[in-house]
Design brief:
Rossmann fold, 2 domains, 6 helices, 15 strands
Length: about 250
């Protein structure tokens, strides 16, 4: 664990440094600076794991504090009305002065617990992100006699008719695909392009012409291709649909 202390009171800074070394065996290094300004070059070389900073240090130079937003900061100060300001300063925790050793140990334990949580779950997070990024780019479809690739971007809509799943391309040609359901396709298509409108349709945003409100807060979607029946989105999903359409 690499620690940075920013404390103008030299005696207080040395006491905190020694106390941290006494109560925590996993400390790799501790650097002490008298102000945020004096340690900016050190921050350019690499951020510490945690910073202990006096609440009053460089408070008149608020623009400097943005350089401390990349790692947890423990603010130190008097037990008064300064606490509410801490929430705008990337505050991991707050230490009242004079500093209580038990509170200091609690903060270190809290930091290690949170760090271990993310370290232990990083593999699952990477797998999750890889799965999200593993979108299907094309389908192999069958013509009259031949097979050829159909880009997902060229699909206007996907329709479920009983157990039959078909794709309609931008030329209004339809192709039957096997081994898929709408639910399985919903998981592998790019969620920024395709929307599950209802139980029968998945639609491509690039081919939405307009939509109009219906009774009971439902909406009807018009695509670039004629389609029957019309694609309706329920009252429960209409708000999510509008948000999805506007957030792209």
């Amino acid at each position: 664990m690499k620690i940075l202390i920013i404390e103008a009171d030299h005696t207080q800074a040395l006491w905190l440094k020694q106390t941290l070394l006494d109560i925590e065996t996993g400390i790799e290094s501790i650097e002490v600076h008298s102000s945020v300004k004096s340690c900016l070059k050190r921050l350019d070389a690499g951020m510490p794991d945690i910073i202990f900073r006096d609440m009053e240090s460089d408070i008149q130079h608020a623009d400097m504090l943005k350089d401390l937003q990349l790692c947890p900061v423990v603010l130190m100060g008097p037990e008064n009305n300064l606490h509410h300001k801490a929430f705008g300063m990337n505050c991991f925790d707050y230490l009242n002065k004079p500093i209580d050793c038990n509170k200091l140990m609690h903060i270190l334990d809290k930091y290690k617990t949170i760090k271990n949580h993310f370290v232990n779950n990083i593999d699952r997070f990477i797998d999750f992100m890889n799965e999200r990024n593993r979108v299907k780019k094309r389908f192999l479809v069958k013509g009259k006699t031949d097979y050829y690739p159909l880009l997902s971007d060229d699909i206007v809509y996907i329709r479920a008719d009983k157990k039959l799943i078909s794709l309609a391309d931008k030329n209004n040609k339809r192709y039957v695909v096997e081994d898929y359901s709408l639910s399985s396709l919903e998981k592998i298509l790019d969620e920024s392009l395709f929307y599950r409108a209802n139980r029968k349709f998945i639609i491509n945003v690039n081919y939405i012409r307009r939509f109009k409100p219906l009774s009971k807060s439902r909406v009807s979607v018009e695509l670039a291709l004629p389609i029957n029946p019309e694609i309706q989105i329920s009252r429960e999903n209409s708000i999510a649909f509008k948000k999805w359409l506007g957030d792209l």
